[in-house]
Amino acid sequence: MTGKLNVVLAACLVGCALALVNTQYQARHLFIELERAQAKARQLDIEWAQLQLDQSTLGKHARIEDIAHRDLGMTQLTPARTQYLTEGQE
């Protein structure tokens, strides 16, 4: 009787030990995945900040005005160049 009990207890002990090893392996694997996801999130935050900076730089009025003058040959509107149209009466 005690021999069978010892075998059953030894089998339970081995089963618990294997379950513990498996659980630790899964925990390490999940921790590595978590670290990768956090690193990816940090990288995306950096890219987002850079895109916001680029957007604010590209949308500045002085830059747009410079491109319009340099690349498109546009000039500032002056009252001397303004023509007013009035509705003619028939």
Secondary structure: elements and pairs:
Layout: H1 2-58, H2 61-70
Word description of this protein:
- The model has no long low-confidence stretch (mean pLDDT 90).
- This protein has 90 residues and is mainly α.
- The longest helix has 57 residues, at 2-58.
- The chain has helices at residues 2-58, 61-70.
- The protein is 74% helix and 0% strand.
Short description:
With 90 residues, this protein is mainly α. The protein contains two helices and no strands.
Quaternary structure: single chain
Mean pLDDT: 90
What kind of sheet is the major sheet?
none
Stretches with pLDDT under 50, minimum 5 residues: none
Q: What global shape is seen?
A: rod-shaped
Please tell me how large the radius of gyration is.
37 Å
Per DSSP E runs of 2 or more residues, the count of β-strands stands at 0
Key traits:
rod-shaped, 90 residues, mainly alpha
